[in-house]
Amino acid sequence: MTTSSTSPSTLPPVAFIGGGNMASAIIGGLLRQGMPASDIIVVEPYEAAREALQANFGIAALTEAGPALQRAALVVWAVKPQTFKDAAAAAAAHTRHALHLSVAAGITTDSIAAWLGTARLVRAMPNTPALVGKGMTGLYARPEVDADGKALIARVMGSTGQLLWVDQEQKLDAVTAISGSGPAYVFLFLEAMTRAGVDMGLTAEQAHQLAVATFQGGAELAARSDESPEVLRQRVTSKGGTTHAAITHMQEQQVPEHFIAAMRKAEARAQELAAEFGR
Ligand SMILES: NC(=O)C1=CN([C@@H]2O[C@H](COP(=O)(O)OP(=O)(O)OC[C@H]3O[C@@H](n4cnc5c(N)ncnc54)[C@H](O)[C@@H]3O)[C@@H](O)[C@H]2O)C=CC1
Ligand SMILES: O=C(O)[C@@H]1CCC=N1
């Protein structure tokens, strides 16, 4: 991939169709990198979401798609899979010249290309830690996207965290199951660890602090270490000790197998979304 020496403040105007959670995470990243709010155009039909964009970012969002979108060199599609087709019908005439980036789960680039009348299209699967610059985004580019287009999208999404390009679109369903939905798995474990801490006599705040710091520390150790997670786990697990008691119970209860099965459900749901809402 080519890299660009241009600074983020020279990014071309970017439009967002849908101004909810995911759009806000990306917009926050762009503003942190010095992009002026006046170069960000947002279409957002819901008043409460428009008010949040104004309050958080000083952006006056449009209520519907219109000629103002023609300024955008890149259009980011951040609507729900269920509403993508209708939103595309309203905006397509104003955005045909642009490069497109979809963050919608499941919806294939074949469907999007048919709706938009252009195949200059990258599909991405980000995650909500993008809100704090710690996101993980999987990306797939159609062959119609050139190196400059990929570089532009890498600069936009790179402002929210790490990037991983995949060479087959189908692999984005696996990305969705791991890192797209993954923050919710982390939060579920945090909820359980906090509940357990309270049961054992700590305050909810104390248990929350211990659990969050343990996820942060464990993830950082795994990221920096040359050892596999399996080896790192074994180092915590003293023979006949406390960790052994907990891990043995999880293994007897087939927690890893159930966890893997749950992730396959997420992958299957991504495939269903494409079938349900991609026509
Ligand atoms: N929340 C997450 O963790 C992730 C979400 N995604 C994907 O991002 C997309 C957006 O998700 P969120 O931001 O969480 O949803 P959201 O509900 O926060 O945002 C979607 C926004 O689109 C607006 N909208 C509805 N109809 C519209 C239309 N016709 N034109 C323009 N805007 C319209 C809604 O008012 C809403 O504010 C989804 O397709 C989802 O699959 C991808 C990765 C992670
Ligand atoms: O749950 C969803 O469908 C979206 C995609 C990944 C995270 N949220």
UniProtKB/TrEMBL annotation:
Tree of life domain: Bacteria
GO molecular function, one term: pyrroline-5-carboxylate reductase activity
Catalyses which reaction(s): L-proline + NADP(+) = (S)-1-pyrroline-5-carboxylate + NADPH + 2 H(+); L-proline + NAD(+) = (S)-1-pyrroline-5-carboxylate + NADH + 2 H(+)
EC number in record: 1.5.1.2
Domain Pyrroline-5-carboxylate reductase catalytic N-terminal: 14-106
Domain Pyrroline-5-carboxylate reductase dimerisation: 169-273
InterPro entries xref list: 6-PGluconate_DH-like_C_sf, NAD(P)-bd_dom_sf, P5C_Rdtase_cat_N, P5CR-like_CS, P5CR_dimer, Pyrroline-COOH_reductase
Pfam family, one: P5CR_dimer
Coiled-coil portions: none
Keywords of this entry: Amino-acid biosynthesis, Cytoplasm, NADP, Oxidoreductase, Proline biosynthesis
Compartments (UniProt record): Cytoplasm
Pathway(s): Amino-acid biosynthesis; L-proline biosynthesis; L-proline from L-glutamate 5-semialdehyde: step 1/1
General function of this protein: Catalyzes the reduction of 1-pyrroline-5-carboxylate (PCA) to L-proline.
Family label: Belongs to the pyrroline-5-carboxylate reductase family.
HAMAP family: P5C_reductase
Identification of the protein by name: Pyrroline-5-carboxylate reductase
Organism: Comamonas terrae
Gene that encodes the chain: proC
